[in-house]
User: Which sequence fits this backbone?
């Protein structure tokens, strides 16, 4: 059930089209969790977006991969 994150260009366009800060925050949170799930090879529902990265299983290499995918 691995999530496939959307490419960066569509998320930028969706954020630009969002009417409120709350909508943009929700879109960015969902995108970030989706990318984190892909890096960790987890289902999106298995990623606690309030947990510290280390608690999710991120080591330095995975953190770099997350950053690269989010750019």
Assistant:
């Amino acid at each position: 059930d691995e999530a496939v994150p959307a490419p960066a260009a569509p998320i930028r366009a969706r954020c630009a089209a969002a009417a409120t800060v709350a909508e943009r925050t929700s879109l960015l949170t969902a995108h970030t969790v989706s990318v984190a799930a892909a890096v960790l090879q987890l289902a999106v529902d298995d990623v606690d977006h309030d947990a510290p990265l280390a608690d999710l299983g991120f080591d330095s290499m995975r953190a770099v991969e997350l950053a690269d995918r989010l750019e």
Notes: The chain has a mean pLDDT of 89. The two ends are 24 Å apart (CA to CA). Residues 21-40 form the longest helix (20 residues). The helical segments are 8-17, 21-40, 53-56, 60-70.
